[in-house]
TrEMBL record:
<protein>
    <recommendedName>
        <fullName>Isocitrate dehydrogenase [NADP]</fullName>
        <ecNumber>1.1.1.42</ecNumber>
    </recommendedName>
</protein>
<keyword id="KW-0464">Manganese</keyword>
<comment type="similarity">
    <text>Belongs to the isocitrate and isopropylmalate dehydrogenases family.</text>
</comment>
<keyword id="KW-0560">Oxidoreductase</keyword>
<feature type="domain" description="Isopropylmalate dehydrogenase-like">
    <location>
        <begin position="28"/>
        <end position="468"/>
    </location>
</feature>
<dbReference type="InterPro" id="IPR004439">
    <property type="entry name" value="Isocitrate_DH_NADP_dimer_prok"/>
</dbReference>
<dbReference type="Pfam" id="PF00180">
    <property type="entry name" value="Iso_dh"/>
</dbReference>
<keyword id="KW-0816">Tricarboxylic acid cycle</keyword>
<keyword id="KW-0329">Glyoxylate bypass</keyword>
<comment type="subunit">
    <text>Homodimer.</text>
</comment>
<keyword id="KW-0521">NADP</keyword>
<keyword id="KW-0460">Magnesium</keyword>
<dbReference type="InterPro" id="IPR019818">
    <property type="entry name" value="IsoCit/isopropylmalate_DH_CS"/>
</dbReference>
<dbReference type="InterPro" id="IPR024084">
    <property type="entry name" value="IsoPropMal-DH-like_dom"/>
</dbReference>
<keyword id="KW-0479">Metal-binding</keyword>
Length: 474
């Protein structure tokens, strides 16, 4: 079945039932070392995973690691330009749960992202990136402990689908001409707009199916969180991109108020219900006035719409959500993308799960990781219904490659997510305790060491991993 791979002789497959993994005691887990700093991070992280599993289960459970290849290593093994061999794709499909280091993507020309390809090929539609503070971690932010969010990023569409044409290419030129002469003039709202002839062109598809399956997973996750963290914020730039980003918001609300009607309340619904609870005699019109700033300046038609919204909400959910019942539901709200970047800094404790489209989630997950200590502390997972690949938020950080200095924390924390996903909570907890204790004692790599007050002598990448293991039981 494999051209150049030999799976471990002992160990068995993780299988899936209704989207959930069924994990044997000796699962075979494929791993990709990664390019650049992958060479430093992976061995350090693997050592921590094995030590934690051994310490937690005393040999009763064990991961059978299966080395597979992508990026530079794959080209060495399989030949020039063989960046993502069939063997690798087949192994991930067969064994279901994999973990990887970062892979290089050139800017401008060259190959398209292997990381994105892995997500699309295996339909790993939810990129889950928790950003949580470990006590003692130095941060550029004054109160980093207030941020505890999970970026839930749609992972298979948006401009990441990679459908674009270079400026001057034959098809790009044809497309621009078709748009300029036919499709744009036929769309009254675009009037006299024209695309400059020397443009590159990219396509941004956002589907209802893709948006709703992401939001569905985000809401299900919110339902597992403690009551005060049961919130899902739909992040979008729907004021500008109305039919892609705006539609993502609308489809998110639609899902929340149909499939999860009993479990969810939207922010606007909560205002309507709260207004009525505060004043049971409040008229529909006054309620509408309170939820819509500038109500009196609106057209009669728009005012009627808002009154209708108030009436519909009160008729539909007063019995199930009124009299404060809504406070026990998952709160679903939305924020415009630019504003959420400042909100996570100015009001970090008001957010929990941030459901985003692909590009916004890419930006937002790096920014949120920076608040809690930087990319060295940013884990992630790409999750589908029958497969999952765990990987850090950051890339290959090439200038640090091979120096044994980079922070392996993000891949180690991605492994913690993997262990939790597998249901091996005891091993995951040991690693979290080890990381927390190492950091609070100032045993950290250069990235955290340089921010500490007073600065501390940095540990190497491999030494940090060793320190985590030493602190498992602190
Ligand atoms: N999923 C993936 O595999 C991803 C791959 N990439 C690819 O990685 C390559 C390099 O991208 P680049 O833009 O440099 O972004 P990177 O995320 O690789 O690195 C940018 C900077 O972030 C900091 N950083 C990154 N990783 C760590 C870590 N483990 N510990 C501490 N600090 C860290 C470093 O900052 P400093 O030097 O200031 O300490 C580093 O110089 C590109 O080819 C890109 O396409 C990018 C993102 C994700
Ligand atoms: O694949 C890449 O090179 C970059 C992807 C990325 O930045 C991300 O997924 O966060
Ligand atoms: Mg990124």
């Amino acid at each position: 079945m494999y051209e150049k791979l030999t799976p471990p002789e002992t160990g068995s497959r993780i299988t899936f039932e209704n989207g959930e993994p069924i994990v044997p005691d000796n699962p075979i887990v494929p791993f990709i070392r990664g390019d650049g700093t992958g060479i430093d991070i992976w061995p350090a992280a693997q050592k921590v995973f094995d030590a934690a599993v051994q310490a937690a289960y005393g040999g009763k459970r064990q991961i059978a690691w299966f080395k597979i290849y992508a990026g530079d290593e794959a080209c060495e093994k399989y030949g020039t330009y063989q960046y993502l061999p069939e063997d690798t794709l087949n192994a991930i499909k067969e064994y279901g749960v994999a973990i990887k280091g970062p892979l290089t993507t050139p800017v401008g020309g060259g190959i398209r992202s292997l990381n994105v390809a892995l997500r699309q090929i295996h339909d790993l539609y939810a990129c889950v990136r928790p950003c949580k503070y470990y006590p003692g971690t130095p941060s550029p932010h004054k109160s980093p402990e207030k941020l505890d969010v999970i970026v839930y990023r749609e992972n298979t569409e948006d401009i990441y689908l990679g459908i674009e044409w270079r400026q001057g290419s034959e098809i790009g030129d044809r497309l621009i001409k078709l748009l300029n002469t036919d499709l744009i003039p036929a769309t009254p709202e675009h009037r006299n707009k024209q695309i400059p002839l020397d443009s590159g062109i990219g396509i941004k598809p956002i589907s209802k199916t893709g948006s709703q399956r992401l939001v569905r997973r985000a809401i299900k996750h919110a339902l597992r969180l403690p009551a005060k963290k049961q919130m899902v914020t739909l992040v979008h730039k729907g004021n500008i991109m109305k039919y892609t980003e705006g539609a993502f918001r609308d489809w998110g609300y639609e899902l929340a108020t149909t499939e999860f009607r009993h479990e969810c309340v939207t922010e606007r619904e909560s205002w309507i219900l709260g207004n009525k609870e505060g004043n049971p005699n409040l008229s529909v019109e006054d309620n509408a006035r309170q939820i819509e700033p500038g109500y009196d300046a609106l057209t009669e038609e728009k005012q009627a719409q808002i009154r209708q919204e108030v009436e519909t909400v009160l008729n539909a959910i007063w019995d199930t959500h009124g009299n404060g019942q809504w406070k026990t539901k998952v709160m679903v709200n939305d924020r415009i993308a630019d504003s959420i970047f400042q909100q996570i800094q100015t009001r970090p404790d008001e957010y929990s799960i941030l459901a985003t489209m692909n590009l916004n989630g890419d930006y937002l997950s790096d920014a949120a990781a920076a608040i809690v200590g930087g990319l060295g502390m940013g884990p992630g997972a790409n999750i589908g219904d029958s497969c999952a690949i765990f990987e850090a938020t950051h890339g290959t950080a090439p200038k640090h490659a091979g120096l044994d200095r980079i922070n392996p924390g993000s891949v180690i924390l991605s492994g913690v997510m993997m262990l939790e996903y597998m249901g091996w909570q005891e091993a995951a907890d040991l690693i979290k305790r080890g990381i927390g204790a190492a950091i609070s004692q100032g045993e950290v790599t250069y990235d955290l060491a340089r921010m500490m007050e007073p600065p501390v002598e940095p540990l190497k990448c491999s030494e940090f991993a060793e320190a985590i293991i030493q602190h498992f039981n602190d």
